[in-house]
Amino acid sequence: xxDPGGPGPVAVLTGFARALRAAGVPADHHRTQSFLAALxxxxxxxxxxxxxxxxxxxxxxxxxLPRYDRCFAAYFSAAFAAPRRTxxxxxxxxxxxxxxxxxxxxxxAGEPGAFPATASEIEVLRHRDVARMSEAExxxxxxxxxxxxxxxxxxxxxxxxxxxxxxxxxxxxxxxEMLRHGGEPARLRRRVRRERPLRVVMVVDVSGSMAAYADxxxxxxxxxxxxxxxxxEVFSAGTRLTRITPALRHRDPGFAMDxxxxxxxxxxxxxxxxxxxxxxxxxxxPRGAIVVIASDGWERGPADLLAAQMARLSRLARRVVxxxxxxxxxAYRPLTSGIRAALPYVTDFVAGHSLAxxxxxxxxxxxxxxxxKGGADA
Length: 378
Description:
With 378 residues, the chain is an alpha/beta fold. It folds into three domains: 9-126, no CATH class; 154-197, no CATH class; 200-365, Rossmann fold (3-Layer(aba) Sandwich). Helix content is 41%, strand content 13%. The protein has 14 helices and nine strands. It has helices at 9-22, 29-39, 47-58, 65-76, 114-126, 135-145, 171-180, 211-227, 245-248, 253-263, 273-281, 303-316, 337-342, 355-365, and strands at residues 154-163, 168-169, 190-197, 200-205, 232-237, 241-243, 290-294, 319-324, 348-351. The strands form two sheets. The protein has a six-stranded mixed beta sheet. The longest helix is centred in the middle third of the chain and has 17 residues, at 211-227. It is flat.
């Protein structure tokens, strides 16, 4: 089932469970173990067995089925096709898939032995630098980013709502209930605080030095806006700060990118991060929010201005996350003046060069990753 040079079957199947979790299906550790145990009694090389074993063990309810089908088709590509729910005439479909090793011909649906190679290639593609991908590979990554669920960490708001199961006593509703019964004792009413998603403000550097990553980062931002449209704000940063949230509210990623291209006036220009962070601080958006800055830190303005504005931002924001595509390189060192000025005020300094890095960033925003302090040695 596994390619000799690729991951084993267990790694492939657990990778599928991770992809489902990123898409919003609750495929936790226990469900994944049940999935692997079920396949121990079936043929793991048979796409139909893999599909139904996963559907029966990894999905929690009917709402998960459409996302499961989309994830199954994306992860296993053309090798395994989800079984049809209606009786139709079987047709042979040829569909291109990403080939990280630069190899040749597209694979054909139902071709024997296609699954191990395709799954291995997708697993390799998850860790590949976006800047080093071919156009076909980048399209595949963009398609997988469109499946990203973009869940958000929750916070307790000041507002309450009625609760039938525990919570603080609700004196007002209890008294009203008693008045409706002529002053007789009534059932004690309770209330709990509402939970709301934490707000995220994302700033995407679209300068010339970020040209290889800007489009993919904007697609990641589109997944965040699609998941929590009322709790996400996105700005582009070049020579000026531009709000692009309305353009990213379109459900179709391609249409949203076209709208961004029309709205952003300073593609592939310079970067004045200090002035742009100062402009961001004049708005109410970053106050109490998680601020995500996606930039390589090449600063054309004075570094001391950026340091002063980042210090203000760290006091106002709940958390400051700096996403640097070059941090994925083991040889990278934060030596540019801009990144050195910003790092003392950054809560998390993370990579942003691959699909796996974007999945980790989404997990961090969902509260599934610990806080990693930034710093000059981060």
